[in-house]
Amino acid sequence: MTQRHFISLCLLPLAIFTLAFLAIPLGRLILASGESEAGWGIYLQILQTPRYLSTLGQTVVVSLAVTVAALAISTTAGLYLVRNHFPGRNVLLSILTLPLAFPGVVVGFMIILLGGRQGLVNQLLPGYWVFAYSIIGLFLGYLYFSIPRVLLTVMAAAEKIDPALEEAARTLGASPWRIVTDVLLPALAPALIAAGAIAFATAMGAFGTAFTLATDIDVLPMVIYTEFTLSANIAMASALSVVLGLVTWAMLLIARSFSGGAVAAGG
Amino acid sequence: MMRLITRHVPLAVTLLACAFLLIPIIQSILAGLTVNYFRGLSSGLTLKWIVQVWELYSDSIFLSIWLALTCLAATLVIGVPAAYVLARNPGRITRVLEEFISLPLAIPGLALALALLQLYGTVQGFRTSWTFILVGHVLYTLPFMVRSVLSVLAAIDLRTLEEGAASLGAGPARRFVDVVVPNAMPGILAGALTVVTLSIGEFNLTWMLHTPYLKTLPVGLADSYASMRLEVASAYTLVFFVMIVPLLMAMQWASARAQRIMQ
């Protein structure tokens, strides 16, 4: 067997699998979106139908809010954990990365335990405090799985910042706040953009969490799901999937161009 | 004042974030072990909910373990040789190929599942078998295996090692088995643990691909959240934690080890 033959043999399983289960199905999905009476005009129809438009808007707003909140929380916590070594630090770090392996449904259940009818907040506070199934619950659910992903990206970048930069700023008389805004944040900027793009894409496509919590809220994955299963509107479900896939793919391309790695998307 | 802000606010944010993530986990552990969650711990501790979960859902647990192992086998067979080729021939075409097989990381599982369903949904024997779910799991986990192995292989001087083996008379297959695979082992191990962890927790694709007779652990979880009492749902979640948390820790250990070896 020559080297060339062996290389082809090595790629054969991948070629067969990718062609049969990724390339052709995705092609089929795109074609299916144009098979309704509206044809390719279906993409225009998304923009003309108030329900789809408000769904798109709502999904983008929630995802943006989660991205901003996760960046703020995880950058603060990540910088603190990189720069301070104290007993119990590793325990905190383990807790903050634990949800990485949780499927979206489990994250949804965590929010139900906090804000559902039998939830902690409703038991502790007087009055009726049930927010799990509202947009706040959805926001908290997305935040729950975004914090660990952003944290890991930020910490990996923060560990590479030369401590001498910070010391130089300090000896030049910079206040701690100015060190953060003029030294640390600029050094972290590429990682923050990458982490933000990952968080945004994950929130946009999160199905499991929405499936558990968003029974009354129109977010894109839920609308795709109901169009497909309840309305049997295959073309619209396909068209919305294509739009969603393009958005999340573009976001992750941005993330990849700013930092090498990618953290699993799967809320 | 300044010291207060720079030191105590970040600590407070860190602790609050930990509390937000940890409190519901503790709640679900407690709820799964108490007789009546609404009355609290004073109603006593019990294992009856765990037993009930086992009676109702043990099939889903075994199916998930089976799927994770077959998924691992498939990603090893498909991913390791492919990563070797990608590492051996860095260039534009391999870059595009890597980008293409990484699409399932970027495209939401729901969209991938719709694509698979439209193409294979009418193929009777396939649609209703466990291999249909397996395809989804391999699709989603394969990029992790390829990247993990690729990053280790890219860090070593593969060409020199192979030339050494070739000059001693080893053919391509022999070099792959005796030189490439041993050197890639840290990456294979990290990739394998990632694949198993992700496969056991996969929901987004699986929910669309499963049939009523083939429920995986996360599908069963969704089912119990919708229709069971809180104690049973919590006990089931507890069983899931017991499986997934050691896997996650092993995965993080193996990934850190692979990174250390690369440097």
TrEMBL record, chain A:
Residues 56-255 form the ABC transmembrane type-1 domain. Keywords: Cell membrane, Membrane, Transmembrane, Transmembrane helix, Transport. InterPro entries: MetI-like, MetI-like_sf. It comes from the Bacteria. It is a multi-pass membrane protein. Pfam families: BPD_transp_1. One of its GO terms (cellular component) is plasma membrane. GO terms for biological process: transmembrane transport. It is found in: Cell membrane. The chain crosses the membrane at residues 56-82, 91-115, 127-145, 187-214, 234-255. Its main location: membrane. Belongs to the binding-protein-dependent transport system permease family. This is ABC transporter permease. It comes from Tritonibacter scottomollicae. The lineage of its organism: Bacteria, Pseudomonadati, Pseudomonadota, Alphaproteobacteria, Rhodobacterales.
Automatic annotation (TrEMBL), chain B:
It comes from the Bacteria. Keywords: Cell inner membrane, Cell membrane, Membrane, Transmembrane, Transmembrane helix, Transport. It is found in: Cell inner membrane; Cell membrane. Its main location: membrane. The chain crosses the membrane at residues 61-87, 99-120, 132-156, 176-200, 233-254. It is a multi-pass membrane protein. Residues 61-251 form the ABC transmembrane type-1 domain. Pfam families: BPD_transp_1. The keyword Glycoprotein does not apply. GO terms for cellular component: plasma membrane. GO terms for biological process: transmembrane transport. Belongs to the binding-protein-dependent transport system permease family. This is Putative spermidine/putrescine transport system permease protein.
